[in-house]
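Data card: per-record layout.
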Amino acid sequence: MQRIEPAGGAVYYQFEAWANHSLLRHGVFTRLGGSSQPPFDALNVGGTVGDDIAHVRANLNQIYETLGVDGSRACTVWQVHSADSLVVSSRPQGRQWLARADGMVTNQRGVPLTMRFADCTPILLYDPKHQAIGIAHAGWRGTVNGAALSALRAMQTAYSTQPADVQAAIGPSISVDHYQVGEEVVQAAAQAFGSTEGIIRRAEDGSAYFDLWEANRQALARAGVRHIEISGICTATRTDEFYSHRAERGKTGRFAVVFMLGE
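The structure for this 263-residue chain is written out next.
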């Protein structure tokens, strides 16, 4: 990924495949550059974690200004660790969020799709043939229940997207080295993927670690997606730049990912 530190703006990353793309605007924002106070310092966009809502709004405004998008048109959802995706055309008047869901897709230009993360996996999808995009939020529940595939299928249904045409990106999230899980997660992964090969790592003491990056890569690849970029950035390791729910023991903020078709 490319790290971008604009003068006077918020620090963010872009995927290599889409950096300087003429038809896409996207940013995986860090925790740097905002106004929130510890433990939410500083660019927190989570409105339900205990931070001052005025700071959250100011941080969102800074993010939209940095990326050069119209925040008044931004769409988001109330993320609930589901595998539900919405087809988005515009932001409903007077609404801050569209529905309880964990994925959004659109083919409308100038409509930013915004989601919040702190260890769960951001998944971005772009169909260059039909000019459509999607974004999904996948923790372990979303991963085993198919959050990435839900967004992909929504694009297929709404825009006739073909998986082989899709470019996918898997953003910063907790890495397998730091994501220890219980046996119920191992069983859910085995049921969802038919095997835990490549997605569950066992330590010498028998404890299990879940690879969200590889699991979501496998899910997309099995669906026919050929182009998948993985950021390789671990949020639990890089708490200097990203929020990590696990590494910071639940008392932390959320970083923003914004994805939009340019006008």
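Known properties of this structure: The CA atoms of residues 77 and 97 lie 5 Å apart. The mean pLDDT is 96.

See the next section for split statistics.
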